[in-house]
Write a structure and sequence with these properties.
Blueprint: H1 2-24, H2 32-58, H3 69-97, H4 105-130, H5 135-166, H6 172-197, H7 203-247
Helix pairs in contact: 1-4, 1-5, 2-3, 2-4, 3-4, 3-5, 3-6, 4-5, 5-6, 5-7, 6-7
């Protein structure tokens, strides 16, 4: 019985944020079936990230036991930031290319969040099972920081993926680069600050920096979502105006 409680506790933060982002799309909600499909793609991205991180581990870029600050940084960048965000981006791109409901700027953020939360849900289950004796503490900490972190990274990714699809095609390479690079950078910094704090004498200062980064990402995610939402509202208003004009032409 306890294992089901642990799994439920692991899934709850991701499901809660999934419900939150679904309800934030106030203009034209995505079909629940597509939301769940994107979530499943995110779950698959856990396996995809392993296919990236294992070769990096094989060439020595990912330390197995980070005993120093430098080891912690390498683990954060090459063991988490790069492989995980690359995998999520690849699965998101595959999903969106086949999704006929992806027709608004804000949809990119919604679906990216679904993919990111699918990844976070599977990762959370794995972490809580691995730390079974302390699952309640680990689950609480990850619910406060790690799962929202994946959500924030995904919002940034989705913002630029939408721009890659809908903006000037000449800007597509730039937007694709930002959709990959910025989440990788934020994810690497997020994990590095936590990991280095466990092996550094300056733990208090690093935790303060981590808290500042968390707040910055939360505010940025809200700003980016609202920006795309406002763009979609303007597009809808313009389309409605054009329909009225056509009625009298």
């Amino acid at each position: 019985m306890i294992i089901f409680i642990v799994i439920l506790a692991a899934l709850a933060p991701a499901i809660g944020l999934l419900y939150f982002i679904y309800n934030k799309d106030v203009l034209q909600k995505e079909p629940p079936k597509e939301i769940l499909k994107a979530f499943a793609y995110g779950a698959l991205s856990v396996l995809a990230s392993t296919l990236v991180s294992l070769p990096l581990m094989g060439i020595g870029l990912v330390p197995t036991e980070p005993l120093t600050a430098w080891d912690s940084i390498r683990l954060a960048v090459f063991g988490a930031g790069i492989p995980e965000e690359l995998a999520k981006f690849a699965l998101l791109w595959l999903f969106l290319r086949r999704c006929r409901y992806f027709d608004e700027y804000v949809d990119g953020i919604v679906y990216a969040a679904c993919v990111g939360l699918g990844f976070a849900a599977v990762e959370n289950v794995m972490y809580l099972i691995q730390n079974f004796q302390a699952w309640a503490y680990v689950g609480a900490m990850r619910a406060l920081f790690s799962v929202p972190g994946h959500f924030f990274f995904a919002v940034v990714m989705g913002f630029y993926v939408s721009k890659a699809f809908f903006d000037d095609p000449s800007q597509r390479p730039r937007n694709i680069f930002l959709a990959l690079a910025l989440p990788m950078l934020l994810h690497s910094a997020f994990d590095a600050l936590l990991m280095v704090s466990t092996v550094s004498a300056a733990a208090t200062g690093l935790i303060a920096l981590f808290a500042g980064l968390w707040i910055f990402m939360a505010k940025t995610a809200k700003k980016l979502f609202n920006k795309h939402l406002a763009t979609d509202e303007e597009i809808q208003k313009e389309a409605e105006l054009n329909r009225w004009k056509n009625l009298f032409n």
